[in-house]
From TrEMBL:
<protein>
    <submittedName>
        <fullName>Transcriptional regulator</fullName>
    </submittedName>
</protein>
<dbReference type="InterPro" id="IPR001387">
    <property type="entry name" value="Cro/C1-type_HTH"/>
</dbReference>
<dbReference type="Pfam" id="PF13560">
    <property type="entry name" value="HTH_31"/>
</dbReference>
<dbReference type="InterPro" id="IPR043917">
    <property type="entry name" value="DUF5753"/>
</dbReference>
<dbReference type="GO" id="GO:0003677">
    <property type="term" value="F:DNA binding"/>
</dbReference>
<dbReference type="Pfam" id="PF19054">
    <property type="entry name" value="DUF5753"/>
</dbReference>
<feature type="domain" description="HTH cro/C1-type">
    <location>
        <begin position="20"/>
        <end position="73"/>
    </location>
</feature>
<dbReference type="InterPro" id="IPR010982">
    <property type="entry name" value="Lambda_DNA-bd_dom_sf"/>
</dbReference>
Amino acid sequence: MNRKELDPDESPKARFGERLRRLRDERGWTQDDLAERMGYSGTHISAVETGRRSPTPRFAHSADKALGTGDQLERQGRAVRSSAILEGFPEYAAHEKRAAEIRLFELGIIPGLLQTPEYAAAIATGAVRRGAITEQQAEERLALLAERQAALERAPAPLIYAVLDESCIRRPVGGPGVMDGQLDRLVAFAALPTTVLQVAPYALGERRTFDLPVRLATMPDRTVIVYAESATQGYLERDSRVVLPMMTAYHQLQAEARSQVESVAMIEQLRKGAP
């Protein structure tokens, strides 16, 4: 039987799934064997082991009872639920590392792949001060971001298309010094031979095709995945019935947004303090 390889370093959820499988294998049980002891289906066990479902408190408690592991899985399950990384994003990030093309649309903040360390730290610090995440979760976010940015420095480099809502460049983050450095970073990004940077102006109004951040990754075999998120949920989608309309909407957005030349001029004007 073909079994999905599990990477426990991918996310807290992946670590839980890998450990659950390892404990099950040590006892010589099938997924159905464990499911019967826990009161779940074999399909549910498979989904948790492979990271397609998160372990609920009830699931983790039942697993501990069936496997005789005290409260170890319950405690590990709490770590999964306390992660600052939205569900679905670690899996997307793993695909992003291999993608031939990456398309980004962002609202309100600069996309992570384009952030300076100072800008990223300011965003994370703000979330900690609001009580939205803990300092440990902020460190988790920043570590994942640094890993994603480092993965772009590969040969051949992926093509990156970034469309930023105007709010991204006008929202002050971290003070004037941090914003100056971030705007300089955007101009430098636009000058690379493998990138396209565009700003979707406020004037686009209802012609803006997305109301939430979107990421599309085209893999080396030309398959495309899309990741979209709200404030509390992340969604990874491979179904062409969803992906193709999203790709079409992205192309429509690019056609409506300012050209790269116009976008860079707008950023440089803002950098000089002009309205």
